[in-house]
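Handoff note, outgoing to incoming analyst
You'll be picking up this chain. Sequence as last confirmed:
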Amino acid sequence: MDSFCPRCRLVEETCLHALRDCPKVAAFWRSVLPKKLAPKFFNGDDVTVWLETNLSFSEAAVFWPAFFGIAVDLLWESRNDLVFYQYDQTWAYVHLRATDIVFKRYKDYMRARASHNLMTRNLLKWRRPLPLSHGHWLLRLNVSGAYDPSSGT
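Most recent structure output, in case you need it:
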């Protein structure tokens, strides 16, 4: 097995070439890039910085970091399918699969969040304790629980 890129066969393959710079992969990225990211997306030669930048970029699109991470994983998987099984995925498949995964995860997140909010509303309210016999009150103190500092609940 040689060290040339299995997709374009033009240059020696590096991680950055396989995930970003190969002309075939670059065409995929150009078709999905948010406009704010496009000018800087192909700059730099450090794969770690490129990954960190895109996984933490939230200005361009709400779903970009999630979509980006999933797309990178699918691109690497499709590269391995080509190298080891001579099976070449279409870019439409990578795009549709990444989008499907991101939106499924978002729906799961929103469903869990709604369930949590409903549970919080039902559990976090004061109720007057029931009187014991002969008019005496019982004091109950619940000391188990969890606190989320970001939401204050």
